[in-house]
Design goal:
With about 850 residues, this protein is α+β, with helices and mostly antiparallel strands. It is built from 29 helices and 21 strands. Strands 1, 3, 4, 5, 6, 7, 8, 9, 11 and 12 form a ten-stranded mixed beta sheet that branches. A nine-stranded mixed beta sheet has the order 17-18-16-19-15-14-20-13-21. The radius of gyration is 34 Å and the shape is elongated. Residues about 1-5, about 110-125 and about 155-160 have low confidence and may be disordered.
């Protein structure tokens, strides 16, 4: 009656014995599997936590600026008329209407402060957000912006903070801003004027890591030539008032181009803008974990082969038929638990390190501040640990299921290893995966993300790995038939080719991780290289001039016609082009769109903009103004070629005809280009914000830049940049943005090397009896080692070729589907052989060296010792 219980307890003892034996006899392979899972968990967890922490920091920064406002009044473009404030404050249900002016300053940095401190992306290191407020209104709506005065001996400000904020030139800095600008005086350039502001205190309510400055509204308007203008009006409703009802009452008071938005719109815009970048980074981080899963698969498959005769003997003696399956699943679970535990700890440390070195956006340029505040939800950390466990269990599932399909009596016979591993071939499954990938590939993005494209990539990858035994059998079978005579004259080569051709399943298990890691590495390298080459070619098109200068951000309205005329008459200039750039809000949930008004009438459009296709002619007699939109405008807002759209310009809705689509890598949120003459006619705005200069033959760029500053006081402190310098800076920003991707690519290769080393080592140990038999037949130990090296080289070469082909397919999907659906731009495919070939050679060398080293150990004993258990 107690037999079942005793049998269960006996099985448990056997399982523990098998687990301990596996760990004792193969510690290196187990450790490599644990390390692979740990690396994958650590990378995925770290990148997720860094992104989550960056969004949390941004959320806190927005909460500080927005305070307790229920709604905000904002203009789609430009600033608000201050007279609108009284109208909003008088609306029934509005308790407080708080005026706010927001400006982007670039104060001079002290020499002892590195320009790279406190930044999250290149190009924003000197940017300081200024929020000018009405102190009394802000106390009820945005109390987090209220400043606190600093007591300084000898300061001209002897009063408390309540009165000090009204003094001209008084500015209050957050702790993060004070770290960048520690001096008691802040120097800001505005045109030819130098504005000196005295740091009168701090802003204690600012979020950690947020460079923020606060001034009195009137003082800021006067200092920065914004009298009568506001950036927004914060609205706090009376108790019991609904936002919908208040919005209906406020709407009649809003002029065209002005709208009422919710305070969390900025947070939603940033989340939408950075979401694709964050998701893509997370997917790339999971590549290492996926490769680790294949290493677990290979390790446990070879462990199943190594233990199968012992398992069969135990089953013949009465152990349950599920013993082998349970043993392998337990081993996979232990590898997963160990790897996940190490990975969770390493992921937390790596996330903290990345936050304090690279920044919250990991180089993407979406978040301007760097914060060391790590936000780690325990459930999230455990979820990534569970993901590592599940990955290891899935890697163990296939060999575990294959181990139970053959009868124990058959497993006791020699040569049963290949039959066991042949069970891992699934041609029908591979065909179904290929069909699923083809169905998923043309599907549109889901919730703005290329989820279907990622599923198609996974389907193609698993299909390709499932076909590895078929590929090896076909390639080596052909090679064996075609090279039969030459191979027969070289016994080592004949043995290597014949063995792999007749035992493709064994070779496929060893090479599955190689195929996976190399395919994904190839795909990532091709994607990044294609993007970089496309950006380089795009820069050639959009930077035709010799010099470029931009009006300072503090110069409200840009350069007037008088300044433009002064620039046009400078000597040494062969040609000049002016550009007016403004932001237009088309959707509160999305970042503004750039409207670029430039002189387009001088040359054909295809020589001025990198068009992606043909132009469309406006209908005869139409009143719509022709414009040229970036690819993002087509995918986000539906501005199709040949369509007519309406946008508020100059306070009136204007009809715009989409005459062309162009490629723009600088503005992910979208851009609209139009002729500057049309822009002036629609808006009456004759100012410009950018100037492009073509130098006359023999003219000096340095002297021309100095003459430009002298002739135009508004540009006295502006930076004049050459096209080569802008190109170098742009490519440096690109490389910084993809620095994490480069690291992930390198880690994928390293994990692949782990897989090659561990699987070939296990393969050599599993074949100790085979080597002993060869030694009995007169094959020297040296020839056995040569055979192993040739097998490793041949098999890895096939795996690299097959993985490269899979990588080409996946890379093509990344370039043609994932990137357009994620970032709304297209690019041309490039295959960087100068990167892929050395990576492949490294994998080949590792395979050959590992096989020889493991072969030495496997063949170290005498032939009799190797075959003593054979029957």
């Amino acid at each position: 009656m107690n037999l079942p219980g005793r049998r269960s307890r006996g099985s448990g003892v056997v399982l523990r014995w098998l687990r301990q034996a596996q760990l004792r006899l193969q510690p290196g392979r187990v450790a490599a599997s644990v390390a692979a899972v740990a690396i994958g968990v650590a990378l995925a967890l770290a990148i997720h936590l860094v992104n989550a922490s960056a969004l949390d920091a941004f959320r806190h920064a927005i909460a500080t600026v927005n305070g307790e406002a229920d709604a905000q009044v904002r203009a789609d473009q430009g600033l608000l008329d201050e007279r609108l404030l009284d109208s909003i404050a008088a609306v029934e249900g509005v308790a407080v209407a708080s005026p706010v002016l927001e400006l982007a300053l670039q104060p001079d940095l002290p020499q002892e402060v590195d320009a790279s401190e406190g930044r999250g992306s290149v190009g924003r290191s000197r940017r300081l957000e200024l929020v000018a407020i009405d102190l009394f209104a802000a106390a009820r709506v945005t109390p987090g912006l209220l400043p606190v005065a600093a007591e300084r001996a000898g300061s001209a400000f002897a009063s408390d903070a309540t009165t000090r904020i009204f003094d001209p030139g008084a500015i209050f800095l957050s702790d993060a801003a004070s770290a960048l600008w520690p001096d008691p005086e802040l120097v800001v350039r505005r045109g030819g004027e130098t504005i000196r502001l005295e740091v009168a205190g701090r802003v204690p309510g600012a979020a950690a890591g947020q460079p923020l400055a606060v001034m009195d509204l009137g003082s800021a308007q006067w200092a920065f030539d914004a009298v009568g203008h506001l950036s927004r009006i914060d609205v706090k409703l009376a108790t019991g008032q609904s936002l919908a009802a208040a919005s209906a009452r406020i709407a009649p008071h809003l002029p065209p181009g002005v709208r009422l938005v919710t305070p969390d719109a900025a947070e939603q815009r940033m989340s939408n803008l950075s979401r694709a970048y964050r998701v893509n980074l997370n997917v790339l981080a999971l590549v290492a974990l996926l490769t680790g899963g294949f290493i677990v698969f290979a390790t446990l498959s070879l462990a199943a082969v190594r233990q199968q005769q012992e398992m069969a003997l135990l089953m013949v003696l009465g152990a349950p038929s599920s013993l082998a399956t349970r043993a392998l699943l337990w081993q996979g679970a232990l590898v997963g638990i160990a790897g996940a535990t190490v990975g969770m700890a390493a992921g937390l440390g790596l996330a903290w390190l990345l936050l304090n070195t690279v920044g919250g956006d990991l180089g993407g340029g979406y978040f301007s501040s760097r914060s060391g505040n790590l936000v780690a939800d325990p459930l999230t950390v455990l979820a990534f640990g569970l993901l590592g466990c599940v990955t290891a269990m899935l890697g163990a599932l296939a060999p575990a299921l294959a181990a139970r399909r053959l009868p124990a009596a058959r497993l006791l016979r020699s040569g049963s290893q290949e039959l066991t591993l042949r069970r891992l071939r699934h041609r029908r499954v591979a065909l179904l995966l290929l069909l699923a990938g083809l169905v998923l590939l043309p599907m549109p993005p889901i919730a703005g993300l290329p989820l279907a494209a990622y599923l198609a990539i996974a389907a193609f990858l698993f299909a390709g790995i499932s076909l590895v035994p078929v590929v090896i059998e076909a390639v080596l079978g052909v090679a064996r038939r075609m090279l039969a005579r030459p191979l027969w004259r070289h016994p080592g080569a004949w043995l290597a080719v014949t063995r792999q051709a007749q035992a493709p399943a064994s070779a496929a298990v060893a090479l599955a991780g190689v195929v996976a890691s190399f395919a994904l590495t190839c795909a990532m390298v091709m994607m990044v290289s294609s993007f970089r080459i496309s950006v380089d070619e795009w820069l050639d098109k959009v930077l035709p001039a010799d010099l470029y200068v931009r009006a300072p951000a503090t110069l409200q309205g840009g350069l007037d016609p008088a300044a433009q005329q002064a620039i046009a008459t400078l000597p040494g200039i062969a040609r000049i082009q002016f550009l007016r750039s403004i932001d237009i809000g088309l959707d509160p949930a999305r970042a503004p769109v750039a409207l670029l008004a430039r002189d387009l009438s001088g040359l054909p459009i295809d020589r001025q903009l990198p068009l992606t296709g043909p132009l469309a002619s406006p209908p005869a007699g139409g009143e719509a103004t022709p414009v040229y939109v970036s690819e993002a405008m087509v995918s986000i807002y539906g501005y199709e070629l040949g369509s007519t759209q309406r946008i508020a310009l100059g306070g009136e809705p204007r009809a715009l005809f989409v005459a062309g689509v162009w490629r723009d890598y600088a503005r992910q949120t979208g851009a609209i280009a139009m002729d500057r003459a049309d822009y002036r006619a629609l808006t009456g705005d004759a100012t410009v914000s950018d100037v492009a200069l073509w130098l006359a033959e023999g003219a000096s760029a340095t002297l021309t830049g100095e003459a430009l500053r002298e002739a135009t006081p508004a540009l006295a402190h502006a930076e004049v940049r050459s096209a080569d310098r802008i190109r170098a800076l742009s490519l440096r920003i690109f490389d910084r943005s993809f620095a994490v991707t480069y690291v992930l690519e390198a880690i994928a290769v390293v994990v692949g090397l782990f897989g090659v080393a561990t699987t070939y080592a296990a393969e050599a140990l599993n074949r100790a009896r085979e080597f002993g038999m060869l030694r009995h037949l007169g094959v020297s130990r040296r020839m056995v080692l040569r055979q192993l090296a040739l097998e490793a080289t041949t098999g890895t070469s096939i795996a690299l070729a097959w993985g490269g082909l899979l990588g080409l397919v996946i890379g093509l999907i990344l370039v043609k589907r994932v990137n357009p659906q994620s970032f709304h731009w297209t690019m041309d495919l490039a295959v960087p052989l100068h990167i892929l070939v050395p990576a492949g050679i490294a994998l080949l060398a590792t395979a050959a060296v590992t096989a020889v080293v493991a072969g030495r150990s496997a063949s170290a004993g005498g032939p009799l010792l190797a075959v003593r258990q054979d029957w």
